[in-house]
Design brief:
With about 425 residues, the chain is α+β, with helices and mostly antiparallel strands. It has 4 domains: about 45 residues, no CATH class; about 80 residues, no CATH class; about 150 residues, no CATH class; about 100 residues, no CATH class. It has 11 helices and 24 strands. Strand 3 and strand 4 form a beta hairpin. Bound molecules: zinc ion.
Length: about 425
């Protein structure tokens, strides 16, 4: 099933573009008089435009996406909200009436479904609505179908649907702004970025699904929150994706950058990328309109010791903190290296990639808003009484700044200008161009 997932046209299309690329390189080699391909590679820096403009595009109306909604260790009971059909190996094997429960069990790597006295076994089952009512799971409505898939030691509950339809469940929750015409260009820019992100995951996701339905990929809440405003932004940018050097661009976004975006290599385990480098997010900056632009967290010494203990950075809770220092910052102002010095002379270091996981928010225990903060350690009679973090921004800061883009949209910038601002040098491609 997985190998057939992407329409073959998508691949052939991609490879034909790839082939075109080689022809372009070959023609270039004739013109420049070079004979060895290795040498040609060196002489064309990645940022230089090739002599023939290459294009990358994909008809997204042909693509589907598999969104992981839930995971079950061994059994799952799925009460259906409407009459549904159960399909296995391309055949409808049963109809389950509204209000009944499908019992699924993992057995020897397969799923065993029990319906009354009948039992069915397969590595995956497809559940489709037999009425006009959308399927529901945990009080959320979903377009497309629900798949039950046997993974290693788990049953995955997956929503499979057209990629463009999936975006209708992403925009309203990821951007979450009320309908406002002055935000529309930002919504279009975001639709392109969210679409590009999703296609990026089609090629690099898990074997059984493409994206998770939460912040680990993109937040997706099905059909409940769809709005005409968001749908219009998706429709008007249909199939448009971001490309760079004839390849799908790698995109990231975060809520508010706090004034400067971040180099991708500083946050994620990958090399720096030309269009994902630190940029100044305007004067003001643009994302100052975000409610999380400025934040403050106040901890006790015990809170901090617990953070370090829970993350296995220290192996006893009886240590005492002497001081905390910022050893190194990135160009963006985010902390590259944080040093915690204990009274016994020992030190532990946190870096940009683990600071937010180790130090948690006081209100909900979630990850820290950003790594862009100053630290103020208060002491009373020579021991630490309070640790204050005074920070800016919300999120990793790489790529598009969501609040900044809303601000740019309000300032009259169009979606192309917004994209160019956060992903300089990329090209918006669409199969119709
Ligand atoms: Zn920003």
């Amino acid at each position: 099933m997985v190998s057939n997932f992407l329409p073959s046209k998508y691949f052939s299309h991609f490879f034909s573009k790839l082939a075109l690329g080689f022809i372009v390189l070959f023609l270039f080699s004739l013109h420049s008089g070079c004979s060895t391909p290795g040498r040609i590679k060196k002489e064309i820096p990645p940022t230089q435009e090739p002599i023939i403009q290459k294009k990358f595009s994909v008809d997204t109306s042909e693509l589907e996406i598999r969104v992981l909604l839930d995971e079950f260790k061994s059994t799952l009971k799925y009460k259906v909200n409407t009459d549904v059909g159960i399909i296995s190996n391309g055949e409808e094997i049963a109809i389950v009436k509204r209000g009944n429960t499908i019992n699924a069990q993992l057995e020897n790597g397969s799923i065993l479904i029990t319906l009354g006295r009948r039992k069915f076994e397969s590595s995956s089952f497809i559940i489709i609505s037999k009425t006009k009512t959308l399927l529901e799971y945990k009080n959320l409505k979903y377009r497309g179908e629900i798949n039950l898939t046997a993974a290693e030691n788990e049953i995955y509950l997956i929503n499979r649907l057209p990629l463009e339809t999936y975006l209708m469940g992403v925009l309203p929750v990821e951007m979450g702004v009320k309908e406002n015409d002055s935000y529309f260009e930002a919504m279009k820019a975001f639709a392109i970025v969210a679409r590009t992100f999703a296609i990026m995951r089609l090629n690099s996701g898990d074997k059984y699904y493409d994206v998770k339905n939460d912040v680990r990929d993109q937040v997706y809440r099905g059909a409940n929150f769809e709005t005409k405003f968001d749908n219009k932004a998706i429709e008007e940018t249909k199939s448009k994706v971001l490309a760079y050097n004839n390849e799908l661009a790698i995109v990231f976004y975060s809520s508010s950058c706090g004034g400067y975006t971040e180099n991708v290599g500083n946050v994620f385990s990958r090399n720096d990328i030309n269009y994902l480098r630190t940029i100044k997010d305007g004067y003001g900056p643009n994302c100052v309109i975000s409610p999380s632009f400025s934040w403050r967290e106040t901890y006790s010494e015990t809170d901090f010791i617990n953070f370090l203990f829970n993350s296995k950075m220290i192996n006893t809770k009886s240590k005492r903190i002497d001081d905390i220092a910022i050893d190194d910052i990135f160009e963006s102002g985010r902390i590259a290296k944080l040093e915690i010095l204990f009274t016994d002379g020992e030190k532990v270091f946190l870096n940009n990639r683990n600071i937010r996981d180790v130090i948690r928010r006081k209100d909900n225990g979630g990850i820290l808003r950003s790594t862009n903060f100053k630290i103020d350690v208060e002491k009373k009679s020579n021991s630490v009484s309070k640790i204050n973090l005074i920070g800016k921004g919300n999120g990793h800061g790489v790529g598009l700044c969501q609040w900044g883009s809303l601000s740019l949209s309000e300032q009259g910038k169009n979606f192309e200008e917004i994209i160019q601002f956060y992903f300089p040098g990329t090209v918006i491609e669409s199969p119709n161009d």
